[in-house]
Amino acid sequence: MGISPIEIFKKLPKTNCGDCGVPTCMAFAVSLTQGKAELSQCPHVDAKAAEQLSASSQPPVLPVTIGCGDCAFKTGGETVLFRHEKTFVSPTGIAILLTDKMDDAELERRIKAVNELQYERVGMKLRASMIAVKSENPDALAAMASKADNGAGLPLILMSENVEALKKAGTALKAKRPLLYAATEQNADAMIALAKELGVPVAAKGKDLESLAALTGKMAAAGVKDIVIDSGARDVKKLFENQIQIRRQAVKKNFRPLGYPTIVFPCDMTDDPLKEALYAAIFIPKYAGIIVLSDLKGEYLFPLLVERMNIYTDPQRPMATEPGVYEINNPDADSPLLVTSNFSLTYFIVSGEVETSRQPVRLIVVDTEGLSVLTGWAAGKFAADIIGPAILKSGVGDKMTKKRLVIPGAVASISGELEEELPGWQIIIGPREAAHLSAFLREIKAKG
Predict the structure, then answer these.
(1) pLDDT digits (tens, 9 = 90+) for 277-287
(2) What is the rounded distance in angstroms from the CA atom of residue 34 to the CA atom of residue 26?
(3) Three-state SS across 186-218?
(4) 230 burial level (CB within 10 Å; 0-12, 13-18, 19+)
């Protein structure tokens, strides 16, 4: 991005009103340069300043919103080539494909799969993001799109080479902001007119990067702003090269004709479901804004969703659980207290094992700034002089007749220091691995 936070700040109202959702105007300026905010969020910036900042404050990969309401899907807004440089912003959307070659039973099965294949991991809900509907027949496309919208309520991708089919289905679902796929060199004028008439995002498909850039340039000049791009490649090697070139041109060269989120189609690249999942796994970290799969199967979808979650987690800000005392399996006064860090993955693994054990336990989560137990211990964040005061401050001891604290076996060395911090408490060294907690808790119960 070619403008600094200070330059943006100079053109902002400097009221620090917080109406933009950020506490100060300077923080808002920084968020703009990072692609984490949009200028329209500031209701007080004057028209002249807005005009001056609108182009320069946009991220290299422009943001596009598909759908509406709580299920709206946002893609783009990216600012870097590699997530360790800062972070990736908008998680890849995973879509399932519906076509008019499928009978009603198959369509219903696929829509049902979209609704049922949902997972919870480290406190996050993971699921497919969109449904792609494809037909050259206007009536069929409109009917399938309506069925998908009523059945799942997710953002839609309307796919057809027939502009009339896109117009009929798009008009019926205009308020839902579907993505129209796709504008090409051949139908560019008609698709530009349709996108402007409906006010919905549109995909641009090129034969190569040069033709794609020319097409998006034409669309942008005509006033179409919400664009998703498809390089047209269906060979994995060529698509991989295109994805990298598109991002490099956008981020390094600030080449606006390629500064849009991309859509890729593993469903068109192979008939093998395993290869299709493998191709999808390649393009989640390599810049795909949307990935369209031929079908959703749990054994392929779940790993892709977990990969997406990991890739789009801010590397500078570990996922953390709220510190505090968590009661699991209805503990009573004789139940032991376990302690762990607030690194989300650690918390959910430990709490999951305790729940599975069916043993009543209290679990205190100590603020380690999102670090795991061993990393937190090495950094001085999971130490006796932090754990002890946290337990005393929580008041959890008032609920316990037997003051027993179980610490992770990996940090057994802090047990003596904890005895000094918590006089009257029994410090028990637990297992090194959470997988052994169930048997360990049963032993504690048996000993009384």
Answers:
(1) 999 999 999 99
(2) 13
(3) CCHHHHHHHHHHHCCCEEEECCCHHHHHHHHHH
(4) buried
- Compute the half-sphere exposure of residue 119: CA atoms within 13 Å on the CB side of its CA: 17
What own/partner pairs with CB < 8 Å and gap ≥ 24 does 423-432 have? 425/397, 426/402, 428/336, 428/404, 430/338, 430/406, 432/408
Q: Round to whole Å and give the CA distance between 37 and 28.
A: 7
Measured from the Cβ of residue 51, the count of other Cβ atoms closer than 10 Å reads: 10
DSSP assigned state of 107? H
Q: Which long-range contacts (CB under 8 A, 24 or more apart) does 206-215 make?
A: 206/230, 206/231, 206/232, 207/232, 208/232, 209/242, 209/245, 209/246, 209/249, 209/258, 211/185, 212/257, 212/258, 213/255, 213/257, 213/258, 214/185, 214/257, 215/183, 215/184, 215/185, 215/188
Residue 93: which residues within 8 A CB-CB, separation 6 or more? Answer: 66, 73, 75, 129, 130, 155, 289, 290, 291
Nearest Cα to Cα of residue 17 among 43, 40, 36: 43
Q: How far apart are the first and last CA of the chain?
A: 64
Q: What are phi and psi of 148, to 5 degrees?
A: -65, -40
pLDDT at 201 (0 to 100): 98
Cα 146 to its chain centre, rounded Å, is 26
**Three-state secondary-structure class, residue 65:** strand
Reading the block at residue 238, the tokens are 């060529």
- 292 bridge partner residues: 95
Please tell me the pTM assigned to this model: 0.80
Radius of gyration of the chain (CA): 26
Report yes or no: 235 and 282 within 8 Å, Cβ to Cβ. Answer: no
pLDDT for residue 339 is more than 60: yes
Domains of the chain: 5-56 (1.10.15.40), 64-311 (3.20.20.20), 324-447 (3.40.50.11600)
State how far the Cα of 224 lies from the Cα of 192, in Å rounded to an integer: 7
Interval 25-56: pLDDT, tens: 999 888 887 667 778 889 898 888 887 777 66
Chain length of the chain: 448
Residue 40 burial (CB count, 10 A): 10
**Three-state secondary structure string covering 366-405:** ECCCCCCHHHHHHCCCCCHHHHHHHHHHHCHHHHCCCCEE
- Provide CB contacts within 8 A for 248, sequence distance 6+: 81
- What is the per-residue pLDDT for 2? 53
